């Protein structure tokens, strides 16, 4: 069980870029790399597109148990990069 978040990254020139991630997703990727089968139980909204899901699926994470809710909004995190 986990969540996917949107990391907003600020670089030295103060430009902002988005990256889907979150601790639960990163932990799932680590588990897959150790040989575990991962079925990511989460809620997905319109911000997560099929392109991102296909990337994570290609890495070994299943979203078969995920529920799509059109009104769901992802949590936002701000990470300052120097």
Offer a few descriptive terms.
82 residues, alpha/beta, UDP-N-acetylmuramoyl-L-alanine:D-glutamate ligase, 3-stranded mixed β-sheet, two-stranded parallel sheet, 2 helices, 24% helix, globular
Structural features, described:
Helix content is 24%, strand content 30%. By secondary structure, the chain is an alpha/beta fold. The chain has one domain (5-77): UDP-N-acetylmuramoyl-L-alanine:D-glutamate ligase. The strands form three sheets. The chain has a three-stranded mixed beta sheet with strand order 2-1-7. A hairpin with a 5-residue loop joins strand 1 and strand 2 (16-21). The chain is globular, with a radius of gyration of 13 Å. The termini are far apart. The mean pLDDT is 82.
How many domains, in number, for the residues? 1
What fraction, in percent, of the residue positions are helical? 10-25%
What value does the average pLDDT take?
Answer: 82
Corresponding CATH architecture: 3-Layer(aba) Sandwich
* Major sheet: arrangement of strands: 2-1-7
Q: What is the gyration radius calculated from CA atoms? A: 13 Å
Q: Which secondary-structure class do the elements indicate?
A: alpha/beta
- Find the CATH topology: UDP-N-acetylmuramoyl-L-alanine:D-glutamate ligase
β-strand number: 7
Report the span from N to C terminus: 32 Å
SS summary, helix count: 2
Identify low-pLDDT runs: none
CATH class: Alpha Beta
Overall form: globular
Which sheet architecture does the biggest sheet show? 3 strands, mixed
> What percent of residues are in strands?
25-35%
- The SSE string, one letter per element, is EEHEEHEEE
């Amino acid at each position: 069980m986990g969540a996917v978040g949107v990391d907003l990254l600020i670089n030295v020139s103060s430009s902002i870029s988005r990256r889907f991630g979150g601790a639960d997703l990163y932990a799932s990727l680590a588990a897959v790399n150790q040989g575990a089968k991962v079925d990511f139980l989460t809620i997905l909204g319109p911000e997560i597109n099929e392109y991102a899901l296909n990337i994570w699926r290609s890495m070994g994470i299943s979203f078969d148990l995920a529920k799509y809710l059109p009104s769901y909004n992802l949590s936002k995190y701000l990470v300052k990069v120097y």
